[in-house]
Each structure stands twice: as C-alpha cells, then as structure tokens.
Write a structure and sequence with these properties.
The chain is α+β, with helices and mostly antiparallel strands. It has an 8-stranded parallel β-sheet with strand order 7-6-5-12-11-10-9-8, with helices on one face. The protein has an 8-stranded antiparallel β-sheet with strand order 15-16-17-20-21-24-27-26, with helices on one face. It is globular and about 75 Å long. The termini are far apart. This is Beta-galactosidase. Belongs to the glycosyl hydrolase 35 family.
C-alpha cells in the first residue's frame, strides 16, 4: 500500500523587508553584504554562507594555513573564532598576541585564501574555557562582570582596543576579510549591556557589515542592533548524567520552523527566566552559528557523536529554512597551558562541568590534530550543494507537509519538507536521528503542489526510504539549458568537462536513481545503463547503475550539452571541487585534499594513496620522489602514487604499574561528578611506557599514537609535563607526536596513566555493556602516519 506524502506550496509570502535593519557594508566595496528579513545578500545576489569555528589559540600557528585550506576544501566560506581574553591576557597588563595567539596573522591567512573571518570578541565567550574566558584578575576586582558596571567596562574597553589594534586594516573598507563580529555570548537577559558592548567595540575601531549575537534561550536583544544567530546540537555534555538523550537535542532532527533552542547553555542560566518578548523572526533571516559539528565531553557526561548525526542535523536545518550554516566546532583543538592555572572549564572555577585539562577535540570534522573525520566528508557533500545552488535555496521558503509527526517521540511519521520559490525547489528527507533508529518507510512517493506550476509526483514507482537515509532531491532544477523535473538523487555540484556542463548527483543507498527530464528542453539522451522512456511530457531515465561511469549525456533543445553523473553514495562523499592545474576540477579522494594555487596536496595514511580527477589534466600530474600511475575510472582518471612502504605501525606498550582500586566518586557543582583529584591519578592509575622509534621522531609531522583503551580518564606525560588527556567515551585516543617535545621524548619516552572508574560513579558513558570497560587498560596501540603529498601539473 502506497503511503501518501503530500505537500502544497502556498503562494509566496510578501517580498522580504529590505533596508529595515541597521547593518551596512563599507562604502564602495565590490560585493556589498546586506540583510533582508529572509536571507542575506552579497553583491546584490542571495548569499548562503557556511561558517566553521576554529580557535586559533587552541592550535599551533605553524599549522594554521594548512588547516584553513582543509576547511576551505570542506566547503567552509567563513572562519569564526573566539578571541579568548584569558588566552591573551592571563596576567594583567601582559597581553600576548604572539605565536599561537597571533590574531592578526590568523585573520590575514583567512584573507589570503579567500575565507571570510568572524571574530567572536566576547568579552565572555564560554567556549568551555576557564571563567568563560574572563581572566582571574578581572574577576578578583570589585566589579560585576557582564554588566554595565563601570569597573567592568573599563578593562573591557581596553581589551576591545587591543583587539581592534590587531585587526586594524582588516575590515571590509580596506579589503579585509571581517564580515561579522559577535558580541558577548549566551547573554539572555541584558540587552542594554549588549548595546553597550557594541558601542565600545565600534569606538575602539572595530567594524563589520554584520554585528551578531547568539539568540538561543529566549534571549532579549537590544532592538535590531544585533543579528540573532541560532544553534542546535545532536548531543549535549551540559545536561545531567542520567538525563538520557535531551529533547532539546531530539528536536533538531525534525523539520520545524522553530528557531530557538532553550537547551544550549541551560546549565548556566535559570531555566525559569526567559526574555519578555521573542525575537521577531519575521524581521530577521534564519541564520546559525552553532550547529553541532561534534560535541565536547565532560567528566560526568561523555556523549558520542557520529558522522551521520552531524550530517542529518545540517541537512535538516537547510530544509527547515536556514540561510547560514554555522558550525561549532568545525575544527578541534587543545587548550594552551596556563602560566598560573589550567585554562579549562571546571568545578574548581564554579562552573557545572569538569572538562579535560587539555583536549578540546570536540569530535569535530577536523580533529584536535587535524584528523580528517567522516563527518568532514558528510558535511562537504552538503556544502558543495550550497556552493552551486545556495543562491537559489536561500530565497526559497520552507514548507512542511500535510501530515506532521505527532510529537518529538513520533518515530513512525516520515520527516520531510520542501524549500520552494513557487515553481521549483528541493525536497528534504531526514530518516536518521541519534540513539533511536528510525524505521524504513516502504511504498513511499511524494506529491508536491505548486501555486505557479504543475504538481510533481515522484518517483515513478514508490520506493522504500531506508532507515538512516538523509537526502535532498531537486524539483525543477535548471542546468545549462536542461530542466531536471525531478531526480531521486541529490545534487552535489557542477563542473565543465568534455564540452559539457556536468551535474554530479549522489544516489541514496537503497533507492534506485531516476532522472525525469522536461521533454521540451531535451533533444537527445544517451545513458550507459538503464532505460530512457518518454512519459507525458517528460523523459524518464531509470535503471542507471550509480558509479564513476554513470554519465547520462543530454543534448538540450537550446543546443547546450549537459551531463548528469550519478555517483553511488559512498563515492559522492569523496568529491572535492577546486582549482587545480589551471582549471576547476573534481577530485575524488577519501582522505584529506587541499587546493593551493598550482598545487594539490593529499593528506593520506594509505601506503599508496590514490585520487581521481575530472576533467583530467593534459599530462599525468607529478609528485616529487614518487611514481604516479594513471588508469581510467569511469569518466574520471585515477592516479595512484607509488610510495615507499610504511614502517611497522605496531606499538609496544609496557605496563609499568597496574591500576589500584578506583577512587570513590566525588560530586561538585550542581551535584555532578567531579574529576578525581590528581593524587589518585598519581597513585591509583595504571602506568604505561612507550618508546617512540627514532625514524618517527625525525619526522613527527602527521604521526599519531592511536590508543584503544578502557577506564575513566587517561593522561599522557613527557617527564612530568602533561601533554594529552581524555575522558573515556569509547572513542580512540589520539596523541599527535609533533606536539611533543622531541628531545624530551627521545630521552624519556612517553608515559601514560589510566585511572579505573568506580561502578557507582554517576557518569554517563554511552554504548557500554557489563563492567569490563571500567577497568583501566590500554588494549591496543598503533602508529597512524598521515603523509602529505604535493601534486603538481605534469
């Protein structure tokens, strides 16, 4: 029995408001940024930015440039970063902007590589930093922080002046990258103070076309002076250990027009207090700055976030109506060592969560040591869509179907929505959520009625929407003279190849791809597999086997030539697009790829890395010191780098001392479990020793020590210096060799301590069965060596 899924797109609402908000770009810029009530504009055209958070002060400056290029290759167009006060001025009067704290160099690198920059200047940031980023010396004063107390505003004014000095000349008026500035963070009930902070920042010399504020938690904003930005996370460390999966996270896997999330930061504000009036959403576009690219782990609660969770969250928000995808974090990092104290959020500073001393990996798409994770590939697939079609999607309104889920615990009603301009659009489906799998939906077909165009029903034969499937299908998409009426495959991007405009599509696992073409726009169709069938004003292409050779060639009625390349779902998640060797090309690679002028660099742990290119360059690319082999891979050409074999990756780990009894649990702020005292790590932890091979010490870049372990918490030391740490959550523990003092490691090796967890500890660790995982132990260790290959034109 076919399950009806119907939706009618209403007549378009009134034209968006323009010129009603007090935001203006610098005079004379070639691509002025503007804001309507429904979307942003740049250069007079709808603009769909993708921002990703990367904290420069939590990452080695020598690696910033390559990591920014990774973010750009992942589809990020703007880099956001907290300017964390305590990282720069831990000691009053000794402000540091050197080394890993060089804000200006970081912003200049963004500009060099065409990335916008969004400083989030606080002064309070949160960011799981000690005191939310406020220095201890400031809090020791007789002043009320985060208010208009003159004793607080005086040092804030000086701090903003320091930031402005670092960023002078990097505003839009001078051709700089700063497109937005965030004031404060998560301040929900002091609109007057937000207004004061904006004024102080402007007086200090800071300038941007957009001034923003976080808007979750029923925030009260100062009129329309700040653009409200929203968020949503797949999981949360800030809720209770025994609270289960929070409903405030569950809601983000439904299509809805509700922007607020009262869960974010709720542990730091009274839940009974909310703003007097909601933000007038009819006057602001739906923009985000904190869609969860992952999640931190606290001692009492250690969530796991998978790539599918991140991908489903991002795609759902686009379907809901987002016009700015902003991720926190997109790139993980490590807390810098403090001169006076450690710099993490902790019970010791009165905050409700104990965080690791050093690690701020956040399970992000790009990890603490630059690891390329599956979530990076998942999001890049969506960002490629936005790069080509975001200007079309941004003005489209989100429309919900006739039949909606009955509530947040309804797992049986299919979750879908359409974004449409009245004649065309994109159909979004999310059939995934964390923790509680959603069922298959057999015999599914969609009927979408338009006010200004005929109704569409798709597919031609009902399909099963598999559990876990998330996709976006096009509705009346124009591609270089061809109209694709609909497809059961997701648009990825376009590229010019072989004299055709090639639209790449990603098949949905478990759903046979079909392409319905408007017959009036088609002169001829050739397909390598399947059938071409004229049906009622359309040409239906079915039976295509997805892959690198699944190129449907269409000669359009207007004389243009179009290719529709249907990749299988796995291959589609390896697609990169960038300028390489004199042309825009697609590169297929399951590892990390960056585009840098005349070079393409691969970051791969494979013994013989490979990548495929479309269109292929005229000559085989060259890699210094390696032989490159070329073979056909469908319409791509695949190149394999013949590399020297990798050395033995096994790691001998020596148990120096077995663990003692697990310490008794202790609770702190809000009754949550606290990290065991250091004395227990010294006396009750199992201790291990690792000697690092000399060949790895000579070339430590890209080398990770990967540990699979069990227990409560683990810390690594070189001598007596803490160099890495983690709370157990079932994830591997990576330690970057190039972050360690090489000579000290050569002389002393690496020492690790692993503490067991008491059975009665009020700690949430997902997915564990029995009690064996509570015992302290390193179960397996290996070296993971990611080599960098520079590929140049042949």
């Amino acid at each position: 029995m076919v399950t009806p899924h119907r939706l009618r797109v209403p007549k378009s609402s009134a034209l968006p408001l323009t010129g009603h908000l007090p935001f203006a770009d610098a005079p004379g810029v070639p691509d002025p940024i503007g804001v309507t009530s429904r979307w942003l504009t740049r250069g007079g055209r709808p603009w769909f930015p993708v921002s990703g958070e990367f904290h420069y002060s939590r990452y080695p400056a020598r690696e910033w440039e390559e990591e920014l290029l990774k973010m750009k290759a992942g589809g990020v167009t703007a880099v956001a970063s907290y300017v964390i006060w305590i990282h720069h001025e831990e000691i009053e009067g000794r402000t540091r902007f050197d080394g890993d704290r060089d804000l200006r160099r970081f912003a200049e690198l963004c500009a060099r590589h065409g990335l916008d920059f969004i400083p989030r200047i606080g002064p309070w940031s949160h960011a799981e930093v000690r005191n939310g980023g406020l220095p201890d010396w400031l809090l020791a004063r007789a002043a009320t922080s985060r208010t208009d107390d003159p004793a607080y505003l005086e040092p804030v004014r000086a701090w903003f002046t320091q930031i402005a000095g670092q960023l002078r000349g990097l505003d839009r008026a001078h051709g700089g990258p700063i497109v937005a500035i965030q004031i404060e963070n998560e301040l929900y009930d002091r609109p007057g103070h937000l207004r004061t902070l904006k004024r102080l920042a402007q007086e200090a010399g800071l300038s941007a076309p957009l001034w923003t504020s976080t808007a979750w938690g029923g925030v009260q904003l100062p009129g329309e002076e700040l653009l409200p930005l929203y968020g949503g996370y797949p999981e949360a460390f800030w809720t209770e250990a025994d609270g289960g999966w929070p409903d405030t996270c569950r809601k983000h896997f439904f299509f809805t027009h509700e922007r607020d999330d009262e869960g974010i930061g709720a542990d730091l504000r009274p839940t009974a207090v909310r703003g007097a009036d909601p933000v007038p959403v009819d006057r602001f576009p739906w923009a985000t700055c904190e869609l969860g690219g992952g999640m931190a782990v606290a001692y009492h609660r250690r969530p796991r976030v998978e790539a599918a969770d991140v991908g489903a969250l991002g795609l759902t928000k686009i379907g809901c109506g987002s016009v700015w995808q902003g991720y926190y974090m997109f790139h993980g990092g490590t807390n810098p060592p403090g001169e006076l104290t450690s710099l993490q959020e902790s019970h010791a500073t009165g905050y409700p969560n104990d965080l690791p001393v050093l690690s701020y990996d956040f399970q992000a798409p790009l990890g603490e040591y630059g690891q390329v994770r599956p979530s990076y590939h998942e999001l890049r697939l969506q960002h490629l869509l936005l790069a080509d079609f975001g200007h079309r999607i941004a003005p489209m309104e989100s429309v919900l179907p006739e039949r909606l889920p009955a509530g947040q615990h309804d797992r049986d009603t299919l979750r879908w929505a359409v974004r449409s301009d009245g004649t065309s659009g994109f159909l979004f489906v999310t059939n995934h959520q964390p923790h509680e799998p959603l069922p298959d939906h057999p015999d599914t077909a969609f009927t979408v009625g338009f006010p200004d165009a005929p109704t569409l029903t798709l597919p031609s034969v009902p399909v099963t929407v598999p559990s876990g499937a998330c996709f976006c299908w096009p509705l009346r998409l124009d591609v270089a003279g061809l109209r694709l009426e609909w497809a059961t495959a997701q648009p990825v991007c376009t590229v010019e190849a072989g004299g055709r405009t090639v639209l790449v599509l990603a098949a949905t696992d478990g759903v046979a791809p079909e392409l319905a073409l408007d017959a009036d726009t088609v002169a001829s169709v050739a397909t390598p597999t399947g059938e071409v069938t004229p049906i009622g004003g359309r040409v239906l292409v079915s039976g295509v086997r997805p892959g690198t050779d699944a190129l449907v060639e269409v000669d359009a009625a207007d004389g243009s030539r179009v290719g529709l390349l249907v990749l299988d779902a796995g291959t589609a998640r390896t697609v990169y697009r960038g300028d390489a060797w004199g042309a825009e090309r697609l590169v297929l690679c399951g590892d990390g790829v960056v585009f840098d002028g005349d070079e393409v660099r691969l970051h791969s742990p494979a013994a013989e890395p490979s990548f495929a290119v479309l269109p292929a360059p005229d000559a085989v690319p060259v890699v210094a010191g390696a032989r490159v082999r070329a073979v056909a891979d469908g319409v791509f050409t695949r190149y394999t780098i013949g590399a020297a074999p990798l050395a033995d990756t096994a790691v001998p780990v020596t148990l120096v001392r077995p663990a003692g009894p697990a310490p008794e649990p202790v609770t702190g702020v809000q009754g949550r479990a606290s990290v065991p005292a250091d004395k227990y790590v010294e006396t009750a932890a199992a201790e291990y020793h690792v000697d690092v091979p000399e060949d790895l010490l000579r070339a430590p870049a890209g080398v990770l020590l990967r540990l699979r372990w069990t227990g409560d918490l683990a810390r690594a030391y070189v001598g007596d210096v803490l160099v890495a740490d983690q709370f157990y959550s079932g994830r591997v523990w990576d330690i970057g060799l190039d972050r360690l003092p090489v000579e000290e490691v050569r002389a002393r090796g690496l020492r690790m301590r692993v503490l067991p967890l008491a059975a009665e500890a009020p700690v949430h660790v997902p997915g564990q069965a029995g009690d064996d995982w509570r015992a302290a132990g390193v179960r397996h260790a290996e070296w993971v060596v990611t080599r960098s290959w520079t590929v140049r034109a042949g």
